[in-house]
């Protein structure tokens, strides 16, 4: 999908295909969730090598060893519903605007992360349920 060869992308960080329209707070939520040993679903806008973009519904899970220690992560990606992408785009535009309104990148991400938490609290649902309502 991204247009990279296997050798170009293998063992590279996800940031190689991170689209600049993606709010950083979404990745913070993702990493915080899987680092806590939980799975997460998230709509992600990726950037292809040629500059195009594509959306996925990512399902990310930690992999554990026999002692229960996280040893890696696994992500399956699915084609998202168009209506869900439209809703995610609107939310992500708002979050990105919050991030970009602060000259300090970390403070901007923290502010947008708090906006995500407030959105979830107002909706009265945990993140996974919220994602599936999009």
The fraction of residues assigned to DSSP E strands is 15-25%
For the biggest β-sheet, the strand order reads 1-2-3
The class by helix and strand makeup works out as alpha+beta
Rough shape? Answer: globular
Residue runs with pLDDT of under 50 for 5 or more positions: none
Q: Measured on Cα atoms, how large is the radius of gyration?
A: 15 Å
How far apart are the termini?
23 Å
Number of alpha- plus pi-helical segments: 5
Q: State mean pLDDT (0 to 100 scale).
A: 93
**Sheet with most strands:** 3 strands, antiparallel
* Number of β-strand runs: 3
Order of helices and strands: HHEEEHHH
Describe the structure.
The chain is α+β, with helices and mostly antiparallel strands. The longest helix is centred in the C-terminal third of the chain and has 19 residues.
